[in-house]
Write a structure and sequence with these properties.
five-stranded antiparallel β-sheet; 11% strand; alpha+beta; 47% helix; 273 residues; single chain; 8 helices
């Protein structure tokens, strides 16, 4: 027997005592479904964000280690190769052998005999026209990057490129020297401007030191921002007072050279009437 106080689903009252229309019940059930799928989507994306970086990093490390193992391990004589006496291969054996070989070479070149052999080899290479240029360029790059006191790629800056008012992230690779510096009136620095998403290619710019804006973000954070195309943006760690005070502006291009000389900074200020 049906209770007279009970009402049909389409006649259930809302807060005002009026019955809810049938469409309201569909919205309620649809909201529950959307809530479930929303949580499912959030959990799925959270799983992707956790596993994707780990998986890609592990895969790249495995590929690099495998490439070194396949390149170095076959060079070891069979009687000295541990894999000869084992029924399985040793991942990372080639990497370990390479590290030991490079360490021994470094220790050898630190001695008198090693330095003599190195100078003799360099004199032979310097007599080869094409090889000489390649060797000297590669050697200079490695000496600059690996030097303990080197400042290459240790500071991220903001520069105006490709025109005034457009800013790009770049890296200081050193102080300009030689003919390029002697031809310019201002002190300039070497700037490497990478491309997105491949930061290994880019442009070499010689920019006056007072026209670059230093960034507080680390080089690693700046590289991540370049590779991601701006999707990964590091937080601003400067004091709140500095965050609320802009240091650069691109509101006008009129009388730009005069304004920049007056301000003595890489700032584009509005033209005053």
């Amino acid at each position: 027997m049906t209770n007279q106080n009970e009402k049909a689903p389409s006649e259930k009252a809302n807060g005002n005592g009026k019955p809810l229309p049938p469409s309201a019940h569909h919205r309620v059930s649809g909201g529950k479904n959307r809530g479930f799928w929303g949580r499912f989507r959030g959990y799925f994306l959270a799983g992707v964000l956790v596993t994707a970086p780990l998986g890609i990093t592990g895969y790249l490390a495995w590929v690099i280690v495998g490439f070194i193992d396949h390149s170095v391990t076959p060079l070891v004589p069979a009687q000295y190769n541990p894999e000869t006496y084992l029924p399985f291969s040793l991942p990372g054996l080639g990497v370990l052998i390479l590290i030991i070989i490079l360490t021994l070479i470094g220790a050898l070149t630190a001695g008198l005999l090693g330095r003599w052999l190195l100078h003799t080899g360099e004199r032979i290479l310097n007599r080869m026209p094409v090889v000489r240029s390649i060797y000297s360029a590669i050697k200079q790059i490695f000496e600059t990057v690996l030097a303990q006191q080197s400042t290459a790629f240790r500071e991220a800056v903001l520069v105006e490129y490709p025109r005034r008012g457009i800013w790009a992230i770049a890296f200081i690779t050193g102080t300009t020297e030689g003919e390029v510096q002697n031809l310019t009136e201002q002190e300039t620095v070497n700037i490497f401007l990478p491309t997105t998403p491949n930061p290994t290619s880019g442009f070499l710019l010689f920019v006056p030191r007072d026209e670059v804006v230093p960034l507080d973000m680390s080089v690693e954070e700046a590289i991540k921002m370049v590779i991601s195309g701006g999707l990964v943006t590091p937080p601003d760690r400067r004091p709140l007072a500095e965050q609320q005070k802009p240091q650069v502006s691109a509101k006008t291009y009129e009388d730009l050279d005069i304004l920049r000389e007056r301000e003595a900074a890489p700032v584009l200020v509005p033209k005053k009437d």
